[in-house]
Amino acid sequence: MESNVFYRSPARKYPVAAKAQGIYIYDTEGRSYLDGASGCVVANIGYGVPSVAEAIREQALNTSYVHGSTFTSFPQEELARCLAQSAPEGLDYVYFVSGGTEANETAFAMAHQYHLQRGNRNKWKIIGRTLSYHGSSLGTLAAASNVGRRRLCSPLLLPFPLVPAPHCYRCQYGLTYPGCGLLCARALEQTILAEGPENVAAFIVEPIIGTSAAASVPPPDYFPLVREICDRYDVLLIADEVLCGYGRTGKFLALDHWQVVPDLVTLGKGLGGGYAPLAAVIAHSSVFEVFKNNWGSFIHGYTYQGNPVSCAAGLAVFRYLCGERLFEQVVEKGRYLAAGLEAMAQQLRIIGDVRGKGLLLGLELVRDRETKESFDKSQQVAEKVKNICMEAGLLLYTGVGGSADVVARDYLIIAPPFVITREETDRLLAMLEASLRKAQDTFNCT
Ligand SMILES: Cc1ncc(COP(=O)(O)O)c(C=O)c1O
């Protein structure tokens, strides 16, 4: 029968997911898939957790909805308290929305209105970086580098500047750290000066790059320098931790690896854990106080902001993460998985780079490991490897391939749920190795 769903790829046939439990998804044809990417880095606690289902049911029966301009709710209050207690000192005020795009749009509006209230009428530009993705709205696309998605709506995008991302495997300056003198961070200062500091509201970054560079980690002194530059020019630092935050890399925030505190941080994906649409902006008290002491309101809002059922789901996910001590397990489990990937890279020349932190790991696939030459874009190697893996019963994520230089790279993101066991990790590695071996024989690797 013809489907009435407008799919992401209308020409494709999708398997129907019949059930999901633990780290496995089962389709109606009886096939099972080990979810090596938590959907798209979402299902951090795995599937089918009864306490989360129960919390959603209870909240739906108790108070399914209130409008954010009229009421607050217990789960919203409690989840905000939990997040503020887990985040670095100063990040104390939480604005809940339904998805990562909304969270980043909200952060942009917050930054703009923060400056307006302090008498800076022109501070509205957002500086983004190459190798970035912040969402699918026009505002978030304008502040990111995703070439494929930007190209389609370029006449509609605001002229936000982009600076080079710190991506040492393929440094945009062709330099090597630390001799490079961190030109990528210094480019931020040059760009602020070129735009005029009086025109720049914020700088948005993914502290560990997600889908546009498969878990690329910056050099150690990059973020301390960025923080300094932002402070010098009264530019807010927005950490987009929709993908890399919330314990995924072994710390509550990815920026915690460098003890840098942003002015605004956005969370999403794992916050609802896939049980409900939920994302958030956590604002530093220095930003919140400006709203409280001036206009007394933030001119912004969504019908589903702070939705009680979504917050109840998020609260139950948070309690499960704490109760099962899952935040603490990410470092060790990530180390084991990364060691397996490193060992695989010794055997398979198609793997050019293994990178990441915690349970956010990435592979870059190359035609020639010595020269780092990529495969031709038309070969769609990552997509094909993903399909080979899926055939074998392993789900991985290839990302959105955002790049500044329009060169398509082949990435695989490996980011299983935090509940993965050692045995399941071994199984993931075995399936991945067999699939990559097949791909290496198919594509012309040198
Ligand atoms: C870093 C980052 N920011 C924002 C988003 C957008 O989130 P959403 O798809 O929930 O709107 C994503 C989604 O992949 C992301 O990876």
Task: Write structural notes for this entry.
The protein is α/β, with parallel strands linked by helices. The protein folds into two domains: 17-48 and 326-442, Aspartate Aminotransferase, domain 1; 51-323, Type I PLP-dependent aspartate aminotransferase-like (Major domain) (Aspartate Aminotransferase, domain 2), CATH 3.40.640. It is built from 13 helices and 14 strands. Strands 4-10-9-8-7-5-6 form a seven-stranded mixed β-sheet, sandwiched between helices. Helix 11 (326-347) runs parallel beside helix 13. The longest helix has 22 residues, at 326-347. The mean pLDDT is 95. The protein binds pyridoxal-5'-phosphate.
**Structural category:** alpha/beta
Low-confidence stretches: none
Count the beta strands: 14
Radius of gyration: 22 Å
- What is the CATH H-level superfamily of the largest domain? Type I PLP-dependent aspartate aminotransferase-like (Major domain)
Strand content: 15-25%
Strand arrangement, largest sheet?
4-10-9-8-7-5-6
Distinct compounds present = pyridoxal-5'-phosphate
Largest sheet: 7 strands, mixed
Count the DSSP helices. Answer: 13
User: According to CATH, what is the topology of the largest domain?
Assistant: Aspartate Aminotransferase, domain 2
Whole-number tally of structural domains: 2
Straight-line distance between termini: 46 Å
Task: Characterize the overall form.
Answer: globular
